[in-house]
Write a structure and sequence with these properties.
This protein is α/β, with parallel strands linked by helices. The chain has helices at residues 2-13, 43-56, 89-96, 107-113, 149-161, 169-178; strands at 24-28, 60-64, 79-81, 99-102, 118-120, 133-134, 180-182, 189-191. The chain starts with a helix and ends with a strand.
């Protein structure tokens, strides 16, 4: 599995220069701040609130952003990375973080497979399943959560069985369509 190989490579490479292992919280700016449990007016406000919570606790805030340009503003005291620094950036950041904080993000899958604690601040479709620790207030993002191994194992098995390579998306659609139908009573999709 490529994700586990990336983690092994990260362990061999060590923490990214300037970041102390297990001394920073890793934030991903994927998802939408409107899905956040903590109300904010925009993503810059969300970033500032999270950064301030870390500063007050004397914890380094580290941000992993997408390659796509955004108008997000990060405090100068925070470290910010994209995929452009190096090929294995996600694995190196994840491996040495205290924990990961997301609103909603697919990096949660990589975090689970590499046994990294995840806090979610959002109302994603996976909310309420016990897979991630869910927070409602800013101070809660500072506490490294316990890992619910049973929920994570169930999630991991589901995720691994339902992932498809980009070249095989037609198979994914076909598989999904074979498992649902439209209910004639309520006209909603239902799983078979």
């Amino acid at each position: 599995n490529q994700i586990l190989q990336n983690k092994n490579d990260a362990l061999n490479q060590g923490s990214i220069l300037g970041l102390k292992a297990n001394k920073y919280i890793l934030f991903y700016t994927q998802g939408n701040c409107r899905l956040s449990n903590m109300p904010v007016s925009n993503y810059n406000d969300w970033i500032l609130q999270a950064s301030n919570a870390c500063k007050q606790a004397n914890i380094q805030a580290v941000w992993k952003t997408a390659k796509i340009p955004t108008n997000y503003t990060y405090p100068n005291s925070d470290a910010v990375f994209t995929n452009e620094e190096e090929l294995n950036i996600n694995a190196r950041l994840l491996t040495f973080a205290k924990h990961v904080v997301i609103i909603t993000s697919t990096v949660s899958n990589e975090s689970i497979l590499t046994n990294v604690p995840v806090l979610t601040c959002g109302r994603g479709w996976f909310a309420g399943l016990g897979v991630f620790s869910e927070v409602q207030i800013w101070s809660e993002i500072l506490k490294t959560p316990d890992i619910n191994r049973i929920a994570r194992n169930k999630w991991s098995h589901w995720w691994i069985q339902n992932q498809y390579l980009m070249g095989h998306i037609d198979k994914a659609i076909s598989t999904i369509m074979d498992t649902i139908k439209i209910c004639t009573y309520c006209e909603r999709l239902v799983h078979l």
